[in-house]
Design goal:
The chain is mostly helical and about 150 residues long. Helix content is about 85%, strand content about 0%. It has five helices and no strands. It is elongated and about 85 Å long.
Length: about 150
């Protein structure tokens, strides 16, 4: 027996809502992991890191919302083809939102399993790269040359 279209849409909405909630859980798990790693390294937990987490959540949900809009358009097209044209075999699956939420969850799981030392090493590498760029800067060379010349 075929399920009514309204009931199908209820399941689609439940799936999308579940994907949004799971993304939030993944970000919270990464936040907890980051706090634990900072505590192990003896670093202070600052509000700046929490603001970065909030910014990350906003960016993730902006992207997911855009993907959900694309899904809504493709599902509307599928419903049109079903109801008006009679194509019964087309699925109503929010595939773009599903793929986006899986991608976000993968990023967060990867972040959780990263070693604290690896993150620290990347921070050191970034600092060294900044210093190397500064050393190669012609402005810095001119400044050093002007201030180290004996009169």
């Amino acid at each position: 027996m075929e399920m009514p279209e309204l009931e199908k849409m209820t399941w689609v909405l439940a799936l999308v809502l579940g994907e949004y909630v799971m993304v939030l859980f993944a970000v919270i798990a990464d936040l907890i992991s980051g706090v634990r790693k900072a505590k192990l390294r003896g670093e202070a937990r600052r509000s700046k890191a929490l603001r970065r987490t909030v910014d990350k959540i906003v960016r993730y949900y902006n992207a997911l919302f855009a993907l959900t809009i694309i899904d809504a358009m493709q599902i509307a097209g599928v419903l049109y083809l079903r109801i008006v044209e009679g194509y019964i075999s087309l699925p109503t699956l929010p595939i773009f939102t599903l793929l986006g939420s899986l991608g976000v969850a993968f990023i967060e799981v990867k972040s959780i399993y990263e070693k604290a030392e690896d993150k620290e090493q990347r921070q050191y590498d970034a600092a060294i790269n900044i210093l190397l760029k500064a050393i190669k800067s012609p402005y810095l060379k001119d400044y050093i040359n002007k201030n180290t010349q004996s009169e």
